[in-house]
C-alpha cells in the first residue's frame, strides 16, 4: 500500500494571533511511502518485529534523553554529543527523493530557530563530519515505520527503510534538541544533541487521533494545526468525524443540501460550516505530508439528524425534522427499509472514497438506539458491500460486531467500552468481533477519550465515562483489558476527541495535551520497561517545548512540570 506525499510542512506555533499565522509551504517533492494500514497489515507484528524489552543500556533514569514515545532501544554516550553549527549540512544520498523531502522538513524547522543555512546536500558516500545524514536503508526488522538514529561527535546519522521511518526519526531528533528549537524566531545556542544510539519501531501499526468536527466545526487551519501536534508523537491516523446530528461537514455534490443546510449550525446554535471537497483534499494531503492517513467517518444509521433534516425523503414518514443543536444522542435513524437510503449511502461513500487515498471508510454504527437491532444488523450487512464496492475497507464503532460483518479484506471495529483498572473484563462486542476475525482498534472511553474532564474543575469536556486524569489515561494496556482478546487481535489504539464542549483549537489543545502523548506511547512502545513514575518525568520534559510553541496545555498536578521550569524557553 502506498500513498503520495509532498515535502512535509513544518508546524508553525500559533499564539493569540493564530488565525492570521500562515503555514510555510516548502517546494513540492513527490514522495511514495509505504503505509502500515493496508488490509494485509492487520496485526501488531505488521508494523515491526516482535518487540524486545526497552533497553536504556549505557544510561540511567537521570541521564537518559526524555523522549516520547519511549524507543525500543536507547543507549547513551555522554562523551559523544553533537552540536548543530553554522556550517552543519543535512546530507541525503543521490536520487533519494523521499529522504530529501524529509531533509527539507528538518532543515526548515532548524533554520527558523537557529538562523543557520543548513543546506540539504547529496553525497553518495554518506555524511562525513558536521552533518546530519538521512538515508533510506536499514534492516527489515525496522518495518514500515522504524528507524535507527546515531548521534556522535562527528554527526547525526538517521536511517530507515522508508520515508515514514525517517520522518518519525526526525521527530525523535527534534526532542533531543533544546526546547527552543520549536521557536519561530532565531534563538541563542548551543544546539546540542546528546550522544545516543537508538533503534526504534512501533508496537502497533495503527496509532490514531479522532477529531469531531461535527458537534462544533473547526477550520482547515485548525485541523492542520492539530495534525502538526499529533505528528510530533508519531500518530499515523487522523480519524475525522464528519457527520452527526448537529452538523454535516463535507460537501457531497450529488446531495448538496447536506453541507449547505445540514452543515449550517452546530451545538449551541452557532453558524457551523463545512469543508468543500477541495478543502477536504487539502487536509488529506497535509496529513499525508506528515505520514498520517486520513479516515473519514459518516456516522450511520444513527447520529443522522443533519442528513434527515436536509432531505425529507430519507425519513420513513417523508417529513424532515428540524436542525438540532443540543447534545442528546440516540434519537435519529436512517430509514432502513427505503431503497433511497442505500442510494444515498452509495453516492456519499462513492464521492468520499474518491477524495480519500487511504484504505478505510468509517461508517459509525454507534448509539443507534432508535434503530431496532434486527434493522440495525440488516443495515450494516447491506452497507459493508457498498463500502467494498468503492474499493475501501469498512470500519465502525464496536456495535457493528452485532451484524454479520465480514473480516475480508480488513474490517475494523473500534471498541469504546469502559474498562477496569484492576483486571481484564469480558466484553461481548470485543469477543464478537474477534470471533469473526475482525481486528480491534482500542479506544476505551474511560482511558482514551480526550474529551473526558480531568476532574470536576475542568472548564471543558464531559464526564459520563468518569473523570480521566493524565495518569488514568496512561495506565492501561490494549492487550490486557479484555479476556479472550490478545495482541494479535488488535490493530492499534486511537484517542477520540468529541467536541460538544469545544469551540476552537485552544480548547482542543487543553483537552488533548498532556494526555495524547501517553496514548501515542501506548500504541508505539512496548509495555515492558514503561511505568507512570518514569513516564511522568518524560512528560514533564515536554512542557518547555509546548511553552515555546504557545500550546494551551493543561498543567496536570500529577506531572512535575516545575522540575523543568528552568529550561530556557522562547515565547
Describe it for me?
- The chain has 571 residues and is α/β, with parallel strands linked by helices.
- The protein has 2 domains: 2-34 and 49-200, Chitobiase, domain 2 (2-Layer Sandwich), CATH 3.30.379.10; 206-527, TIM Barrel (Alpha-Beta Barrel).
- It is 27% helix and 17% strand.
- The protein contains 15 helices and 21 strands.
- The protein has helices at 97-114, 163-176, 220-231, 257-260, 277-289, 305-310, 339-355, 373-389, 428-435, 445-448, 470-474, 505-512, 515-524, 532-540, 543-549, and strands at 2-5, 31-34, 73-76, 82-84, 89-92, 120-122, 131-136, 147-152, 155-160, 191-193, 196-200, 206-212, 237-241, 243-244, 247-248, 293-300, 360-364, 393-397, 412-415, 439-442, 490-497.
- It has an 8-stranded parallel barrel with strand order 12-13-16-17-18-19-20-21, surrounded by 7 helices. The chain has a 7-stranded mixed sheet with strand order 3-11-8-9-7-5-6, with helices on one face. Strands 1-2 form a two-stranded antiparallel sheet.
- Helix 1 (97-114) packs parallel to helix 2 (163-176), helix 3 packs parallel to helix 5 (277-289) and helix 7 crosses helix 8.
- The longest helix has 18 residues, at 97-114.
- It is globular and about 75 Å long.
- Residues 1-5, 10-35, 38-62 and 567-571 have low confidence and may be disordered.
Amino acid at each position: 500500500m502506498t500513498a503520495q506525499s509532498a515535502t512535509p510542512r513544518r508546524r508553525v506555533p500559533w499564539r493569540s494571533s493564530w488565525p492570521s499565522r500562515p503555514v510555510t509551504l516548502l517546494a513540492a517533492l513527490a514522495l511514495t511511502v509505504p503505509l502500515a494500514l493496508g488490509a494485509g497489515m492487520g496485526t501488531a507484528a505488521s508494523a515491526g518485529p516482535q518487540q524486545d524489552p526497552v533497553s536504556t543500556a549505557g544510561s540511567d533514569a537521570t541521564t537518559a534523553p526524555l523522549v516520547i514515545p519511549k524507543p525500543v532501544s536507547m543507549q547513551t554516550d555522554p562523551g559523544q554529543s553533537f552540536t548543530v553549527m553554522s556550517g552543519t549540512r543535512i546530507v541525503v544520498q543521490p536520487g533519494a527523493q523521499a529522504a530529501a523531502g524529509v531533509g527539507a522538513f528538518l532543515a526548515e524547522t532548524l533554520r527558523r530557530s537557529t538562523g543557520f543555512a543548513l543546506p540539504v546536500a547529496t553525497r553518495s558516500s554518506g555524511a562525513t563530519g558536521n552533518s546530519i545524514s538521512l538515508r533510506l536503508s536499514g534492516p527489515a526488522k525496522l518495518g514500515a515505520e522504524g528507524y535507527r538514529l546515531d548521534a556522535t561527535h562527528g554527526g547525526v546519522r538517521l536511517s530507515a527503510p522508508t520515508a515514514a521511518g525517517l520522518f518519525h526519526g526526525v521527530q525523535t531528533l527534534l526532542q533531543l534538541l533544546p526546547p527552543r528549537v520549536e521557536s519561530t524566531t532565531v534563538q541563542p545556542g548551543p544546539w546540542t544533541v546528546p550522544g545516543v544510539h537508538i533503534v526504534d519501531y512501533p508496537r502497533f501499526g495503527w496509532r490514531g487521533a479522532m477529531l469531531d468536527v461535527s458537534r462544533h466545526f473547526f477550520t482547515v487551519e485548525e485541523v492542520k494545526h492539530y495534525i502538526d501536534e499529533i505528528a510530533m508523537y508519531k500518530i499515523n491516523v487522523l480519524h475525522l468525524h464528519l457527520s452527526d446530528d448537529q452538523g454535516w461537514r463535507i460537501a457531497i455534490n450529488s446531495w448538496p443540501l447536506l453541507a449547505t443546510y445540514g452543515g449550517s449550525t452546530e451545538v449551541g446554535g452557532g453558524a457551523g460550516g463545512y469543508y468543500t471537497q477541495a478543502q477536504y483534499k487539502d487536509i488529506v494531503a497535509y496529513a499525508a505530508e506528515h505520514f498520517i492517513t486520513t479516515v473519514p467517518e459518516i456516522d450511520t444509521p444513527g447520529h443522522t439528524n443533519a442528513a434527515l433534516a436536509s432531505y425529507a425523503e430519507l425519513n420513513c414518514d417523508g417529513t424532515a425534522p428540524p436542525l438540532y443543536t443540543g447534545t442528546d444522542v440516540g434519537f435519529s435513524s436512517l430509514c432502513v427499509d427505503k431503497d433511497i437510503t442505500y442510494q444515498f449511502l452509495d453516492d456519499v461513500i462513492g464521492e468520499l472514497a474518491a477524495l480519500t487515498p487511504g484504505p478505510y471508510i468509517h461508517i459509525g454504527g454507534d448509539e443507534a438506539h432508535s434503530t431496532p437491532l434486527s434493522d440495525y444488523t440488516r443495515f450494516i450487512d447491506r452497507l459493508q458491500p457498498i463500502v467494498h464496492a468503492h474499493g475501501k475497507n469498512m470500519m465502525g464503532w464496536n456495535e457493528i460486531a452485532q451484524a454479520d460483518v465480514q473480516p475480508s479484506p480488513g474490517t475494523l471495529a473500534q471498541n469504546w467500552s469502559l474498562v477496569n483498572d484492576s483486571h481484564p473484563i469480558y466484553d461481548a462486542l470485543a469477543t464478537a468481533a474477534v470471533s469473526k476475525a475482525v481486528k480491534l482498534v482500542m479506544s476505551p472511553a474511560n482511558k482514551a477519550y480526550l474529551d473526558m474532564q480531568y476532574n470536576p474543575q475542568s472548564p471543558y469536556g464531559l464526564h459520563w465515562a468518569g473523570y480521566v486524569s493524565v495518569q488514568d489515561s496512561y495506565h492501561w494496556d490494549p492487550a490486557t483489558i479484555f479476556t479472550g482478546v490478545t495482541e494479535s487481535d488488535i490493530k492499534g489504539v486511537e484517542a477520540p476527541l468529541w467536541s460538544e464542549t469545544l469551540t476552537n483549537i485552544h480548547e482542543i489543545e487543553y483537552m488533548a495535551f498532556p494526555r495524547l502523548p501517553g496514548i501515542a506511547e501506548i500504541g508505539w512502545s512496548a509495555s515492558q520497561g514503561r511505568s507512570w513514575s518514569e513516564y511522568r518525568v518524560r512528560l514533564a520534559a515536554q512542557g518547555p517545548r509546548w511553552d515555546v510553541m504557545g500550546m494551551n496545555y493543561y498543567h496536570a498536578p500529577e506531572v512535575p512540570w516545575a522540575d523543568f521550569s528552568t529550561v530556557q524557553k522562547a515565547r
